[in-house]
Amino acid sequence: MPTPKKSSSTSRSTKTSSKGGGTAAAKKTAAKGSSSKPKSAAPKSAPAAPAAKEEKAEKPAGGPPKDKNIVMKPPIVVKDLATKMGLKPFQLVHQLMEMNVFAALTQAIEEDVAVKVCEANGFKFEVEKREKGAGQVHAPEKVVEPPKPEPIKEEDLQTRPPVITFMGHVDHGKTSLLDAIRQSNVTEGEAGGITQHIGAYQIERKGQKITFLDTPGHEAFTAMRARGANATDIAILVVAADDGVMPTTKEAISHVKAAGVQLMVAVNKCDLPAANPDKVKGQLQEHEVSVEDYGGDIISCDVSATKGTGLENLIENMLLQSEVLELKASYKGHARGVIIEGQSEVGRGNTATVLVQSGVLKVGDAMLVGPLYGRVKALINDRGERVKEAGPSMPVKVLGLDGAPVPGEEFTVMRNEKEARSVAEERASKERVGKLEKGSVVTLENLFARTAKDQKKILKMVLKADVQGSLEAVKDSLLKIDSDKIEVDFVHAGIGPVTENDILLAKASDAIVVGFNTKTDGSAASASKREEVQIKLYSIIYELIDQVKDAMAGLLDPEEREAHLGKAVVKQVFKLSKFPVAGCLVDSGRIERKARARVLRGKTPIYDGGIHTLKRFQDDASEVKAGLECGIRLGDFNDYEVNDVIECYTLEKVAQSL
Ligand code: GDP
Ligand code: MG
Fold it and tell me: Each residue of 591-606: pLDDT tens digit?
């Protein structure tokens, strides 16, 4: 395989990663000395249709629209509509929010809303009429959604505090920074007043508030995003000045970029003698995080969490950045927002820390969260005080729900408890029969089906490899595939096994997961099942490339996939006839007579085929389970040795989905 030239791979990956969205890039508006607002915020100030006219010329940040007409069949799912408009799904979610329509990525919106939001982005929306009787056997499933709230009035929109999350490598000081900033906000006389932990807190500086999510790490961040919630406005990448950019730092960068969230850098531990902030910034530059000192536009602050130095500057810059983002929300009407944490607490029952994103949450409100509901019995702020209400960006703990909700789930306030209960119950029963809408599964087929005809498709990929060299080689080869129909965008490319995080990132970004010369760790396997994200592992580079090429050409045939049944170890060989029998002990799973088997000597397969006979003592058996002995004769194989491993598997036909 060709060794990739460093320069070419870097420049190409820069190019591709900025496509299919470009939000992160667009949002990297210099905070200092620049009043130009980020492109992605364009439709925000003109959410309603009439005012949107002047905005028409302004293209959405997510790549130029190819087709001015958008035609879709209902249900009009947010994610699909975003794809058609060339927007990142969260951008559309944001725009919808500004129109006071709160829909998760996988939820459907009304036709008139689609018309409005399309218009605001310079598109004309049309519903594709189904032909009479064509295919449609059932009535379209009713989406269990609360009634639409009254539209937000422009005059109700006010600046809201930014919501900030710290991310970075373990031990680089995320928790210390959160604590130090919080400590610095405690005024005299209320010392000790910060013992309460509600998963988020707010500070105030010069009359301006900042909200911090106390769930450091991109795991929580991406897990929430995989459920369709983007609670964070600004992600602060914490890098220890003595340690520099580490694997998790890189991962965090990918996660933030994939989310299109504004990035800031805090170079921590600057008090240490070994601290080298400049080196850190150089390393960040190599990972496409270009900080101001290096001519970029990402704010970076040198700090020390333990000494408290640089914290005020960091906070000031947060406020500055937040000003640039022009974060607004309505301070009127029923509250909507997102769950940060859910718990069952002794003495309190089910509690949920929520972040209000719009409207005002009040004690006594009828709250709806997924299949849960309840009357808000009490609201507790981050200081442990009872409060009567919470407005936008304010985190509060809610008492009174009938269960503990999942982080990332959205909540709404309904007109009354009865309404909340009926929607909750409907959702719960749907969930029971497994019909609740999950995020759609990304496969190459639906990728093709979902994108407009003449629009270039973007195949998003989380790529993991064993070593840097092979990672670069695979990346380079994939980027070299010449196709005018599709192009690869690496949401994340890193070294090591495929982890649960990779799955969540893929889920949140509509990406596929590809591993080269690597494996999946335990939790990744179950996450992949749960989240319905497929992992493809390869050990031969041209196989990987060929499959991606085939996929790009739309030539994927149903594939046969191995389902591992069990394995047996050869303990003794009986040379009874021309075809000897292997006396085996089933080591794990089971051996099935009708399944296929493969003989492994060491790691080398030396036979692969059917099973001729399977015996328990003298009797034929259809299957033999782990812990039992059996005699195995495989097709025409006659060369068993003690300690050979016989792997038993079946072949399942699965649609290729790369
Ligand atoms: P996290 O894993 O990113 O949350 O890191 P922690 O906040 O738990 O910090 C890890 C370790 O680094 C702890 O022992 C902290 O005391 C130490 N630490 C954090 N910030 C600083 C700092 O600014 N200077 C020094 N010298 N040590 C720090
Ligand atoms: Mg920590």
Answer: 999 999 988 887 777 8
251 vs 548, residue with greater confidence = 251
Sign of CA dihedral 237, 243, 246, 250: positive
Q: What gap in Å lies between CA 311 and CA 326, rounded to an integer?
A: 23
Written as one letter, the residue type at 565 is L
Using CA atoms, how far apart are residues 134 and 264, in angstroms rounded to an integer?
52
* 386 contacts: CB under 8 Å, gap ≥ 6: 378, 379, 380
- pLDDT for 244 equals 95
Highest mean pLDDT among 84-98, 184-198, 353-367, 600-614: 353-367
The answer to which of 153-162, 219-228, 488-497 has the lowest mean pLDDT is 219-228
In 3D, which of 20, 104, 106, 88 has the Cα closest to residue 532? 106
pLDDT for position 149: 60
The larger pLDDT score, comparing residue 282 to residue 610, is at 282
The answer to whether the CB of 33 falls within 8 A of the CB of 272 is no
- Closest ligand to C-alpha of residue 166 is 1
Distance from the CA of 240 to the center of ligand 1, in angstroms?
Answer: 8
Global pTM exceeds 0.70: no
pLDDT of residue 366: 96
Rounded Cα distance, 232 and 440, in Å: 23
- Looking at residue 340, its amino acid is I
Over residues 304-320, the pLDDT tens digits come to 999 999 999 999 999 99
Distance of alpha carbon 282 from alpha carbon 267, whole angstroms: 12
Ligand 1 close to Cβ of residue 218 (< 6 A): no
Nearest Cα to 353, choosing from 338, 366, 373? 338
**Given the CA of residue 272, which atom of ligand 1 is nearest to it?**
26
Contact 301, 237 (CB under 8 A): no
Alpha carbon distance 587, 316 (integer Å):
62
Return the closest-CA partner of residue 440 out of 109, 145, 106, 110: 106
- Alpha carbons within 13 angstroms on the beta-carbon side of residue 391 total 14
- Please tell me if the CB atom of residue 304 comes closer than 6 angstroms to any atom of ligand 1: yes
Question: What pLDDT, on a 0 to 100 scale, did the predictor assign at position 38?
Answer: 38
How far, in Å, CA of 95 to CA of 114, rounded? Answer: 11
Q: Which helix (H) or strand (E) holds 445?
A: helix 444-450
The answer to whether 516 touches 464, Cβ cutoff 8 Å, is yes
